[in-house]
Amino acid sequence: MVSLIVPYRDRLKHLPGCLRTFAEHVGEEYEVLISEQAEGGYFLRGQLANLVFSRAAGEIVAIMDVDARFLVRQEFSRWSSEQGKPFLPWTRVVDVAEDQAGRLTPLGTPIIWAGNAGMCCVLTREQFEASNGYSNLVIGWGGEDNVLDGRVHRFARLDLNIAHVAHRADRAKVVRTARRANNMLLCLTESRRNLAADSFRQTLATELPAEVLSQSPRIVKYAWRDITVPADFAYRELLDDYRAGEAETID
Description:
Layout: E1 2-8, H1 15-25, E2 30-37, H2 45-53, E3 60-64, E4 68-70, H3 76-83, E5 87-88, E6 92-98, E7 104-106, E8 111-112, E9 120-124, H4 125-131, H5 143-151, E10 156-157, E11 161-165, H6 177-189, E12 204-215, E13 218-228, H7 236-246
Parallel strand pairs: 1-2, 1-3, 2-13, 5-10, 6-11
Antiparallel strand pairs: 3-9, 4-11, 6-7, 6-8, 12-13
Helix pairs in contact: 5-6, 6-7
């Protein structure tokens, strides 16, 4: 079975389309674990994925952006066996418009995202555990998948397209260059840290009541607030420095 993990915040309008793309394109038994950040402040996408990993029942785990859409049948188990390592089921991304019925209209030609991970990252349970999962130091979204890419010694890529639902960015949540520089520095210095001391096992949060959306397939929405790390987190000073920079936003 495949466990599809969807970490998100403030994107409820994109969730129905995400669930639809699973129903239409995942070619094997699956469950969906939605991990919602139920508070404001900095978006912690990687930590949201970490928090629900222990709830996953599948031998294959796919971490999916809520605004990503599949365009072809997904055969995660077969592809995982063939690749023998973590992989991205795409090489090119095409921006699309999505109507209420789920119809996708391309807004341009597919673009190769060279050097960038994300959209949908697929690993076995053992591969996720061995990599230590997502770093607790990454703030926002985008950088967390690139750091994970380094932790798994680079995702393999399949020669497929994936769609991204285009949407207007909320400028109130766009952080200054300082945060992006911090995430870039994190990527460059990742190998100098003890990854086991900054892993999915260190991600803590207050859990709100879960909501079962479907029994077959099993779809459960988890919600979290007060996402943090243990008091003795090895890189507490670095984490506090990164999060202080996140407080500066563009109005």
